[in-house]
Amino acid sequence: MIRTVSSQLQLHLYGEADLIFSVSVAEGLADTEQLTITADDEPVEVHEVIGRHGTRLHRVAGRPGPLVLDYAATIVGRAPEPPVEELDVIEYRRPSRYCESDTLFAIARSEFAGLSGPELLAAVDAWVHERLVYVPGVSQVTDGAVKAFLARRGICRDYAHLVVALLRALDTPARLASAYAPGLTPMDFHAVAEAFVDGAWHVVDATGLAPRDSLVRIATGQDASETAFLTQHGAAVDLLWMRVDATTDEPVFDDHRRPAVLR
Prior knowledge:
- By secondary structure, the protein is α+β, with helices and mostly antiparallel strands.
- The chain folds into two domains: 91 residues, Immunoglobulin-like, CATH 2.60.40; 142 residues, Roll (C8orf32 fold).
- Helices cover 19% and strands 37% of the residues.
- It contains five helices and 15 strands.
- The strands form four sheets. It has a five-stranded antiparallel β-sheet, with no helix packed on it. A four-stranded antiparallel β-sheet has the order 5-6-2-14, with no helix packed on it. A four-stranded antiparallel β-sheet has the order 12-11-10-13, with helices on one face.
């Protein structure tokens, strides 16, 4: 399988800003890759910082005015399965900013009593899929799993946050991953949950909008606070335009009855 991904962001900065982009595929995945960031059509210096799970952050000291990011990569084949670290199993069972598993504890224990392993993942996947409606633009960047549960609607990150929170409430380690998603409609950066069962990390995508086997990992973390495609400090920034593309050279069909691994 050959997967080709790309993205372009056009920004306007209203002052000097510390910008952190998370749009590059995770460390070691790309066979070919190009990242350019320009301000007033002039290249700017980019500093790469490697985070956990191979997350690659690109930091730029932005000045007032327009700034454009262009990224493209080709991924041939599949990467090894994600390694399992003891710290992950500990940390990814805790409540977090957007995944309030402590608040949803009673609901999770009532709805999924007696389930574990792949059976639990399938049940949570189906439960969230049936109860939320995918509606672009309705959720705010400050909304978490509880808000998504009450509103009964949201986008991919809302689905993923609710899945993660429910699984953590059931003592199952779960985390969020951002990804390029060939086959996704509408095309965008995508967010999915990963759950640790039977000794491995398995993808749970309750939106059902993209084949899990075609996903390409970008960032991995507790929730959207650690996987956002852009973080800014120091000045206001407008996102004027964004384009995301992801394709694969062969059709991929997803049988949601079986586990899948993001790689």
